[in-house]
Amino acid sequence: MLYEFVDDDDDHDSIPEWQRPFQRTSQGIAWPGYDVDGDFLHDYNQNNNPRPPWTVSIPGRPSSVPTNRNRNLIPDYEESFLRFRSDRPEFLFGVDMNHNGTPDPFENDLLPDYPYKADHRGINAYARWSPTPQIRLLAGRQDMGLISGDGNTESWYAMLTWTRRLGRGGRLRVFDFGALVQDDIRDDLQTWVQPLGAVGRMRDVRDLLAAQDTWRNTLYIDADQRLSAGLRLFHRLKWESWWQRRARLEVADEEGRMRSGFLGVINKGEGTIPI
Q1: For the chain, counts of helices (H) and of strands (E)
Q2: The pTM is what?
Q3: What is the Cα 94 distance to its own chain's centre?
Q4: What does the alpha-carbon distance between residue 208 and residue 188 come to, in Å, rounded to a whole number?
Q5: Which of 93-97, 112-116, 163-167 has the least mean pLDDT?
Q6: In sequence order, what are the beta bridge partners of 57?
């Protein structure tokens, strides 16, 4: 029997995604993401039991039946009322350093959580400068390759961060990440898919290698306005663009587009009345 020293626990809930004998398992279900409020629950599935009694697999015996039949496997952004405080991951900002189209904080794969991926060798060096406490500039170089193959990832990247405090405890944040990328290393994922009116499941997501020779930029802005003690407004904007530098016919042969991207806007208002 083989047990790895490092588990695959991309959502950091202390329950590995791998199914192993004599060990609690999450059945391969993972909810990676941000935990801004520090309650050990990822913010877009807050009502999921963080330590549910998942099936225990014992060789030669049928799987045990979970005792918690009411555990919730629906993302909060798909549920009425709960979606007000939970936005889809595609609307959130995160750096994507393996250039597969999914921000790194929201990635879930089937690999052990090593500090660096196996069979990879390279460097990632950057410099950071803060001319003021509110402004941060970062620029770097990434150069990575496969040890046992011909895949390579090279990029020059830069990021601007600006934060400003607004009246009554509000906040304005701006992030702009840009990169010139040449990447042909596949980084496939598994992610939760919630069809309309059907049971959700984990689904394999293949890396389409959309950044083989590409300019890419992500602009993200959010603002939290506290207009009064009982009135709060929240705004979020994300604009992501990818520009292909390869020949148009080469991109068309792969059923791609010379320019692609995502534009998302969220506006919310919340009012409270003391009783």
Answers
A1: 1, 9
A2: 0.81
A3: 6
A4: 9
A5: 112-116
A6: 21
Q: Which two tokens stand for residue 52?
A: 């549910």
pLDDT at 28: 60
Give yes or no for residue 41 having a pLDDT over 70.
Answer: no
The tokens describing 255, both together, are 């059923």
Rounded to whole angstroms, the Cα distance separating 113 from 30 reads 13
Amino acid code (one letter) for 82: L
Q: Token digits for 102?
A: 């999914």
User: Which residue type occupies 100?
Assistant: N
* Three-state SS letters, 126-170: EEEEEEECCEEEEEEEEEEEECCCCCEEEEEEEEEEEEEEEHHHE
DSSP 8-state code for residue 14: S
pLDDT of 81 > 60? The answer is yes
CA distance 159 to 126: 11
Tokens of 40: 């050990």
**259 vs 193 pLDDT, higher one:** 259
Distance CA 8, CA 23 (A): 13
Q: Please report which helix (H) or strand (E) contains residue 263, including its range.
A: strand 259-271
